[in-house]
Amino acid sequence: MADELIVDIEKRFSSGFVVAADWSAPMRGGAILVLFGPSGAGKTTVVRSIAGLERPERGRIQFAGDTWFDADAQRWTEPQRRHVGYVGQKPALFPHLTVRANVEYALSDYSPTERARRGDEMLALVELAEYGDRYPRELSSGQAQRVALARAIAPQPRLLLLDEPLGALDAPARSRLRSLLRSVVERTGISAVLVTHDRTEAIALGDQMVVLAEGRVRQVGPVLEVFRRPADLVVARSVGVESVVPARIAGAEDGLVLLKVGDATIRAVAVEPVEDIEIDRQHPDVFACIRAEDVVLQRAAPSNASARNHWSGRIVGVESEGAIERVTIDCGFPLVALITRQAREELALTTGAPVVAAVKATAVHLVARS
Amino acid sequence: MDWTAMWVSVRLSAATMVVLLLVGTPIAYWIAFSKWRWKFLVEAIVALPLVLPPTVLGFYILVGIGPASPLGQLNTRLTGRGLAFTFEGLLIASVLYSLPFAVQPFSAAFASVDKNLLEVSWSLGVSRRSTFRRVVLPLSVRGLVTGMVLSFAHTLGEFGVVLMVGGNLPGVTRTVSIAIYDSVQALDYQAAWQTSLLLLLVSFAILSITYSLQKTVWAAWPMN
Fold first, then answer.
1. Model confidence pLDDT, tens digit, residues A237-288
2. Residues A168 and A87 in one domain
3. Highest mean pLDDT among A248-262, A292-306, B46-60, B72-86
4. N or C terminus of chain A with fewer C-beta within 10 Å?
5. pLDDT of residue A307
6. Looking at beta carbons, which residues of chain A come within 8 Å of B126?
7. Is the pLDDT at B135 greater than 90, yes or no?
8. Taking the domains of chain B in order of start, what are their residue ranges?
């Protein structure tokens, strides 16, 4: 069952910056809505307003039919009564309480046995069953963030709000928590809003995506859709013009990973992050991300070139962005290339023209989707 | 050596400390978390005893609890006697006089608790009052201890206010600082020596213990 989240808020800051976010989206249990945007876009203001930690000047917020905020009707629901789980960039664990007491903090209404059982369950969920007696200062930042996640989920919130929860972590901890986050959300069936400015995170975790830039909502849609078809230049700049191709790992060849998309083969280097690739052996579905700047267009396949990927296809669209043009190619999968207008005119690349797209294996970025 | 006066001082200090813990905590909480734009006025009022001459404070308190005042009349109706020149009257004066010594460390401690912890607690469904009890208070223990010790020590050493309000009744309002003053007036230098030395040692001991327990609490001390 999908609960509708309706956000239509406006908040002014003394600096003159205005956040005016307006969107609504069905929140499916176990699925993640990504609130995406560059730093300073107003993402945190929006998510804190949903949590009830900040109060906008105008507008309304509704979730699953409940009005949490309505400026016109002067309605305001205290954060205590919204039943949301909130995890920020910092774990914010209570330093005077043990890990277990942190996780069970919101379970005062439970009987002692029920509370302990729920605490065990939550600690196991975030893979910290052995850490209950420790104090927050004895944890790594990744472990602390997992405790914060367990604490937020323990009282069974209706909505989980994650404000850049991976932002303060180093790369290995981030990668680990990322896959844990996905499985926790799926297993608990909670709807979640994830704030991030990281494209990898958005692609790996998100189902739906709301793009926020300069305080305004620019686009709402499925994550892949937004990456493939940014609504405007601002979105394209903030998400990065990128082709995201769902692919399947087919094998390896000379240290390169071979991916299959229909009949086409993509060669990629499994440099970064190796552990993601290992996950993929069991779940061979990945996303191959190719930045539009890295795609070279030619009229015919060269006899010898360093690029490992050569895909023949046809041009299906050309959009001008001044001196730069955005060319969409169908080569078994949709691929976007950014080239200069001069180059396009020289090569006579118009819609319908055959073309060969070349991409170095090192320019193909793999994102695991567990 | 006037042990009776010493006992009055200790009782007065202890009572002041307890009352300030109860009265000072909500005031400090309000100062630490209120966003009211005129909050600085309340802070200034709380800090007044730091700069006012004790005689001025004592004079107003004397008028405020005197038989003509509403507070004095209420007390007369309830107990059949006045507040001025009683231990209770002295306690009221001491509480007001030491208010900043309790409230300022309390509110500094409350304000230094990470705001994120409070917000997490609220979003977990825990009321503001319970959050204060379960998060703010335990994390403010050092500030609370500092405030209580300071108000105890400050009351132990008060003179001007006691002189104005207390009335120097042996065993009731004659505190140790008044006793020293009387000894000097009576040219009993030996008694003055003994009592002064005792007060000096006790005060020094209390402050030493406090400083040793919490090295980082006082911003005025440039250590750490």
1. 777 767 888 888 888 777 788 888 888 888 888 754 444 455 445 557 788 8
2. yes
3. B46-60
4. N
5. 81
6. 80, 105-106, 108
7. yes
8. 3-33+52-213
Is 90 exceeded by the pLDDT of residue A87?
A: yes
Ordered alpha helix ranges (H), A11-140: 43-51, 99-103, 112-125
Q: Is the pLDDT of residue B222 over 70?
A: no
User: For residue B137, what is the nearest residue in chain A, using CA coordinates?
Assistant: A96
Residue B117: the pLDDT is 95
Minimal CA–CA distance to A332: which of A267, A281, A274, A262? Answer: A262
Report the residue from A84, A85, A96 with minimal CB separation from B139.
A96
Restricting to B residues 119-138, those with a Cβ less than 8 Å away from any Cβ of A are 119-127, 134-135, 138
Q: Is the ipTM of this complex over 0.85?
A: no
How does DSSP classify residue A138? G
Phi first, then psi: what are they for A128, rounded to 5°? -130, 35
List chain B residues with CB under 8 Å of A95: 139
Hey, how many other C-beta atoms are within 10 angstroms of the C-beta on A204?
23
What class, spelled out in words, does domain B3-33+52-213 have in CATH?
mainly alpha
Alpha helices in chain A (DSSP H): 43-51, 99-103, 112-125, 141-153, 171-188, 199-205, 223-228, 233-239, 274-282, 341-347
Q: Which residue, of A184, A215, A239, is where some domain finishes?
A: A239
Residues of B in contact with A82 (CB under 8 A): 123
pLDDT over 90, % of chain A = 44
Give the separation between CA B87 and CA B176, rounded to whole angstroms.
14
Q: What is the pLDDT of residue B20?
A: 95
Q: Look at B124 and A51 and tell me if their CB atoms are within 8 Å.
A: no
Are residues A352 and A258 part of one domain?
Answer: yes
Same domain, A270 and A283: yes
Which of A216, A239, A262 is the last residue before a domain boundary? A239
Sheet with A309-321, strands from edge to edge, namely: A296-298, A354-359, A309-321, A324-330, A334-340
**CA A318 to the chain's CA centroid:** 28
The answer on pLDDT for A148 being more than 90 is: yes
Chain A residues closer than 8 Å to B121 by CB: 94, 105
What is the CB neighbour count within 10 angstroms for residue B197?
A: 11
Which residue does chain B place closest to A154, by CA atoms?
A: B124
Chain A CB within 8 Å of residue B116 CB: yes
Residue A343 belongs to a domain with what CATH number?
A: 2.40.50.100
Q: What Cα–Cα distance (Å) separates residue A342 from each residue in A314, A336, A345?
A: 19, 17, 5
Please state, in angstroms and as integers, the Cα–Cα distance from residue A282 to each residue in A9, A26, A250, A272, B86, following that order.
43, 31, 12, 18, 83
A338-352 per-position pLDDT tens digit: 888 888 888 888 888
Looking at the structure of chain A, the number of domains it has is 2
Residues belonging to chain A: 370
Chain A residues in contact with B127 by the CB 8 A cut-off are: 80
Q: CA angle, B35 as apex, B34 and B39 as ends, to 5°? A: 75
Exposure of A110 in the CB half-sphere (CA atoms within 13 A): 16
Q: Residue A279's pLDDT is what?
A: 46
- Interface contact flag, A88 B124, Cβ < 8 Å: no
Q: Confidence class of residue B77 from pLDDT cuts 50, 70 and 90?
A: confident
**How does pLDDT run across A25-56, given as a tens digit for each residue?**
888 888 899 999 888 888 999 999 999 999 99
How much is the pLDDT for B214?
67
